Amino acid sequence: MKYNIWNKWDPLKVCMLGNNYAPEFFNGVSDKAADPLKRICEETLEDLQGYKEILEQFGVEVIQPDINPNDRFLDNPGNYSRGPLQPRDAQLVIGNELVFTWIDAPEIEQRLLEYSNQNIVKSVKTDENTYNLMRGEDWPEYEDYLTNNYSECPSEIENVFTPAPNITVVGKDVYVDVVHGFNKKAWDEKFSKTFRTTDLYIGGHNDACFHTIKPGAILSLNDVQIYAETFPDWEVCYLPDQSWSKVEEFLKLKDQNQGKWWVPGEEDNAEFTHFVETWLQDWVGYVEETVFDVNVLMLDQNHCCVSNPNNEQVNTFFKKHHIEPVHVPWRHRYFWDGGLHCITLDLYRDGVQKDYFDS
Fold first, then answer.
1. Does 293 map to a domain?
2. pTM, two decimal places
C-alpha cells in the first residue's frame, strides 16, 4: 500500500518535497532584476536540501519532482509557470487514495505517478474562466453553479471536489472549506462511507489558518471556526498576525504589489518589483493573509518542523503537549507564499483510521 494518510501526526514515512528552478534560469535578465531572483533560487534550493536532510534524519523517504536544468526564462518569457515547489496546492492523500484536485505542475503529477499509479482519484478544479471556456448551452451561469452547490453539475466536470489545501483529514472526520465551492454530491458518492464531512467557512487554505498537530491540540488563527463545535475539548493555541509584527519592511511594498509578496532587502528595487509583477504573478501568492507559524509539518506526535523557532507562545504550547520543535530554515516563504507544510505532501504515515470524536 503506497498511500496511507489518516491525520497529520502519525509517524511520517514517505513525503514529497517540492523543487525549484536553479539560479541559471534567469541568465540574461537585467542584473537589477536577475540578481535578487538568482539569490532567491539559490537559497531556496539550499533550504530544500536542508529540509530533505532533516526529513531523512527522521527516517522519512523523500521524493522530489524533476525540473529541467536547461530551462531559461528568456527562451519563453512569461510562459514558464511556477516551479514544482508546492505539491500540497493541488493534491492530497485521503486515506489510501491520492486525490488530484487540479494540475498545478505537471512535474509533480509525473513524479507522483512514478511513485505509484494505483489508487488515484482525479477531479478538476474549475474556476470561472475554465468553466466559461467549457460551458455548454444548457449549463447554468457560474454563480448559479456555485450557489447551488454544484447540484446542476455538468457531466464534463462532475468529479470536481474543492482545492486540495481546503481539505483536512482527522481520522474519521474530514473538514472542508466550502467558501469557493464544493461538489457535495460527488464527494459523498466517493467518501461518505469512509468519512464524516464537516463544512467550514474560512475562505482560504486550511493549513494557513489552522493545523491539528496531535489529538487534542490545534494551532490556529483567530475566528476561523468555532472549535467547541468542530473539535470539542481540543486545546487551541491562537496566533493572531504574529508573523507580521516581525516584517515591518513589508509595508514599503504594499502599494506596489498589493501585499502579495516580500523579499527582505529588495523593498526599494523598483526594477525587480516591476519584473515580478509583470512576468511572475502566478509564481507568488498572497502572503499578507498567511501566518507561517501555523504552516508546520508534524514528523510524529512529538516532533514538529517549524520555520520560526523563536515563537515563545508556540514553544510553550508545544512543551505542554510534549512536542519538540525542529527548526527548518525557509528564508523565502514571504516570496513564495508557502510554508513548510505547503512545500511538502505526506504520502504515507504509519497508522490506521481512528474516530477521535467517538461518543
1. yes
2. 0.81
